[in-house]
Amino acid sequence: MKPKTDVIVGAGPTGLVLALWLHHQGVNVHILTRQTVRPKLGLTEDLLALGYKLPASNLWVGEEHKAHIPLRDFGLELTPYPFMLSTPQDDLERMIEKRLNDVSIHVARGSKLQGFVGHGSSITATLFREIDESSTTHEASYIVGCDGAHSAVRRGIGAKFEGETYIYIADVEGKGDEHFNRKGHMVFTNDTFTQVVPYNEAGHARLSLSIRSHSMMLDPKSRNNRAFLVGDAAHIHSPVGGQGMNTGIMDSVNLAWKLATVLKPNMTKEAKYQLDSSLSRIGEGTVQPDDRLPWVEINEVDNFSTLREVCWQLHIYGESVPELEKWAREMNAKVFTFDWHDQYGKVGLVKNAVYLLRPDQYIAGIFEGPSTKAGLDEYFATRGFCPHAGRD
Ligand SMILES: Cc1cc2nc3c(=O)[nH]c(=O)nc-3n(C[C@H](O)[C@H](O)[C@H](O)COP(=O)(O)OP(=O)(O)OC[C@H]3O[C@@H](n4cnc5c(N)ncnc54)[C@H](O)[C@@H]3O)c2cc1C
Fold it and tell me: For residue 167, how far is its CA from the centre of ligand 1 (angstroms)?
């Protein structure tokens, strides 16, 4: 019998996001962390309320001030959020976990993965509870290691993890006109890189000093058909660059739609190996399959507003195509039509083209003209899956 759940090991930011996105795509999850205490989506508004908008950052070479970089609106016209937002990670984790609790998913605290074995079409994970020293087993279709730098899932796969990092980090509080002025500072010397990133108005900042820093990366040859690694379990970046968590969250959003797809009933074996090959027809615009959809807001019509729903979508910029409404209903996808405006053309979108968007908000394919419906059908037929969702 097919297991009822999928196991996520680790409740850091990548595990929490993966659980939330899988839930919204119809997958049952079991999420656990060895931590016993809780550390101190429509996630955007909560995140904005939580974060601190950095007004600017300063660039120094040694003691010489080289540049002042305004950050309040440096992404204007590219994103609805054109600023840099600084947020403590534990606040972010608490916020996402609350969203999971709202949909009745709870992190099994104090439960540690000891190991797992694969049986072809499923895995059995052995979990250990420190509080009563009990061991239990859990059957799942897949196991995802979101369990950080010392990942037990990575050990289970036997993957190599190479690289090294020398970094010092401190959360500090201070005052000062030159370096403690609620703006960011980046200081370069021949051998070091130091960064001050404020995260609130009260004079608190993260101070990081990098002496030598190489990212640690998973050997790409490491593979296991039933186990996946995301976040720090798969790659560790220097914290100075501020990319680790962001990259891990993107891993999760991407893995979620693929896992949700392969877990659907009647999925052919071949399809499971074809999820990475996207592309179908390329229109005349500069936007191509595998790109992120460009953001445009015209007269308060925001084309990103539809992306709050985690599902396959069609975006049409121009005239609506009634036959696609029926196709989308049958496929459990959504169609959104935006009246044409030159502004769409300026960002590379093509009038009356149909953009097929994946649940991770990237463009799967672009279709035009009378063969659009046939092209959409072909897209899914050649990959052996369709967007029908639902827990089985
Ligand atoms: C000081 C510092 C500053 C940083 N600043 C930034 C920044 O500004 N921006 C940014 O994007 N990134 C930053 N990072 C990186 C970021 O913190 C990590 O990339 C992020 O935490 C990775 O998330 P994760 O969910 O993959 O792993 P983790 O956060 O490490 O979470 C791992 C989870 O797995 C659980 N676990 C581990 N082993 C087991 C087991 N055997 N069984 C059960 N559960 C287990 C743990 O309890 C935990 O819940 C910083 C890192 C550091 C150290």
Answer: 15
Residue 267 · residue 389 · CB < 8 Å: no
**Measured distance CA(93)–CA(217) in Å, rounded:** 24
pTM for this structure? 0.78
* 242 CB-side CA count, 13 A: 17
Give SS3 for 311. Answer: coil
Alpha carbon separation from 119 to 78, 248, 280 (Å, rounded): 47, 28, 36
Query: pLDDT averaged over consecutive 10-residue blocks of the chain (392 residues)?
Result: 70 88 86 67 80 90 88 91 88 89 89 91 92 92 91 88 71 79 82 82 82 60 76 81 84 88 66 47 68 93 90 94 89 93 94 93 91 90 71 40
Q: Specify the residue with its C-alpha closest to ligand 1, atom 38.
A: 147
Q: 257 C-alpha to center of ligand 1: Å?
A: 22
Closest Cα to atom 25, ligand 1: which residue? 12
Q: Work out the burial of residue 207: count CB atoms within 10 Å of its CB; fewer than 13 is exposed, 13-18 middle, 19 or more buried.
A: middle
Q: Which of 213, 245, 251, 252 for a ligand 1 pocket mutation test, highest count of atoms within 8 Å of Cβ?
A: 245
User: Alpha-carbon distance 12 to 92, whole Å?
Assistant: 10
- Listing from the earlier edge strand, what are the strands of the sheet with 111-118? 111-118, 123-129, 134-140
Between the CA of 149 and the centroid of ligand 1 the distance, in Å, is: 7
193-198/184-188 β-pairing? antiparallel
Closest CA to 356 of 339, 333, 340, 338: 333
